[in-house]
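User: Hi! I have a protein structure encoded as tokens and I'd like to know what sequence might fold into it. I'm fairly new to this, so please keep things simple.
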């Protein structure tokens, strides 16, 4: 059980919060706009406006299965579809018009959003992220989240999604210039590279996360992008960390256990370049 006012974990049946002292029984269980708490469906099953969903195959190779009622739709990141029923219609459009598409493209995302609609009868759509990892089904209730651009997978048609400036320092940190702002009520599917780790912050608590490990966080939480080391930029860069985000509670954030940019850096020496000759790189494994 979680205190809705300060996010302190409480024993079952507690009447008062040990963190803030408020009476637990008097707290509302709703998640109004700006309130603390990311509601992830623990069993990976649920329903929304004209559809049901299920997350299959664990946290390494997750697959989202959405069953749509007749004439119902779901929106997803372009290229996320794995399979769909024969009666499901796929349409791609520039989300937010031309300017919205340009912001998404600059932010490293696809300029287009895919919309899946079951025509005449019920249908099924399965979705998966491009990298191995987890899928979290977040049940939004008049809430506001920020999502790392590469982590947004799909969402209810009623959700308002916009691309926001993430700060100039994110460019130098190699994490892209923009993040997604998601508002409203309905299903939000986010994905991660690796597993998803949840972290709740108490009021006034400060917490630092490498920007390459961020998945999503509550929109009301203040955060600051800064260098990782207080000793200066040089020590931050040689430490391998660079830019970090410092959050202030109360609130909750989702962190991915692996960093795609760091993983790509490890693989880079194994890929051949134009200057590579003969026996080095992956090409040599295949006699190329």
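Assistant: Happy to help. Inverse folding works backwards from shape to sequence: for each of the 288 positions I chose a residue that suits the local structure. Here it is:
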């Amino acid at each position: 059980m979680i205190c809705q006012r300060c996010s302190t974990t409480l024993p079952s049946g507690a009447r008062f919060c040990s963190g803030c002292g408020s009476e637990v029984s008097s707290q509302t269980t709703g998640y109004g706009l700006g309130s603390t708490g990311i509601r992830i469906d623990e069993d990976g099953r649920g329903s929304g406006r004209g559809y049901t969903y299920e997350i299959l195959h664990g946290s390494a190779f997750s697959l989202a299965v959405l069953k749509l009622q007749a004439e119902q739709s779901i929106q997803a990141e372009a290229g996320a579809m794995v399979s769909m029923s024969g009666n499901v219609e796929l349409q791609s459009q520039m989300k937010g018009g031309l300017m919205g598409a340009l912001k998404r493209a600059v932010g490293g995302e696809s300029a287009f959003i895919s919309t899946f609609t079951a025509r005449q009868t019920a249908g099924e759509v399965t979705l998966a992220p491009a990298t191995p990892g987890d899928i979290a089904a977040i049940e939004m209730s008049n809430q506001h989240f920020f999502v790392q651009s590469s982590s947004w997978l799909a969402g209810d048609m009623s959700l308002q999604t916009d691309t926001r400036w993430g700060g100039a320092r994110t460019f130098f940190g190699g994490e892209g210039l923009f993040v997604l702002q998601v508002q409203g009520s309905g299903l939000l599917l986010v994905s991660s590279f690796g597993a998803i780790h949840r972290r709740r912050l108490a009021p006034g608590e400060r917490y630092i996360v490498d920007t390459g490990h961020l998945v999503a966080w509550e929109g009301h939480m203040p955060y600051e992008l800064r260098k990782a080391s207080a000793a200066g930029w040089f020590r931050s860069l040689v430490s391998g960390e660079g830019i970090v985000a410092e959050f202030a509670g109360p609130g909750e954030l989702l962190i991915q256990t692996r960093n795609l940019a760091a993983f790509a850096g490890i693989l880079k020496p194994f890929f051949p370049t134009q200057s590579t000759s003969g026996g080095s790189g992956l090409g040599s494994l295949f006699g190329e």
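A useful reference point when you look it over: The two ends are 58 Å apart (CA to CA). Feel free to ask if any position seems puzzling.
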